[in-house]
Amino acid sequence: VVPPPTSVRYDFETSTQGFTSTGVAASTLSITSLNSVSGTKSLMVRAAITVAGGHYITVANPVILGGDTVTYSIYLPVGVLLTSVQPFMQETSANSWRYTAGWITPAQLKFGQWNVLSITAPVDATKFQSLGVQFNFSAPWTGDILIDAIRVSGKGTVIDAGTPSPTPTVDAGVAIPDAGVAVPVTGSIIRVMPLGDSITAES
User: Fold this and answer.
1) Residue 134: helix, strand or coil by DSSP?
2) Given Cys at both, which of 14, 115, 135, 187 links 168, Cβ 3.0 to 4.6 Å?
3) Are the beta carbons of 114 and 38 closer than 8 angstroms?
4) pLDDT (tens digit, 9 = 90+) per residue, 7-22?
5) CB contact set of 176 (below 8 Å; sequence gap of 6+)
């Protein structure tokens, strides 16, 4: 079944919708009514990071088409010790496990409020094995990060923004509560090739 052209695919109103956590330390995922963008609940990532490194919040086998844009609403508390946030998606073996991601630095993020981040799938993508967000921590940290209203746009159409972009962007369109002012983000599409081949980044 092909989803509608624009929809909130993951709203976390009744469950964590299959999302899991992996990385440098385990975190507990739950739904909370503490704060939200869509509806009354959001996904709470209760992190207990013991060492610096990457932490992944992912869902398996998402239904995404080539050219689709995935938009995340992410609440980052003041004081969270991050070096970057990376929305990402990874294809299946049919496309050599190609990995598309963007690097967003703390200077490009708002703390104590919601951030709206987007990433666009390669137009020739056919099937994805995972979708999610990587949080890269600079030091041990304990606290809560919220994720909500993960939207998937129709093929090649960006939600709440102007021209579609092949690189991750901070949404500059309709403001959400406590969203602040969004700023442009630069990023790369990283193609992970089979063992023995090179890895290239396209600006």
Assistant:
1) strand
2) 187
3) no
4) 789 999 999 999 999 8
5) 37, 73, 114, 116
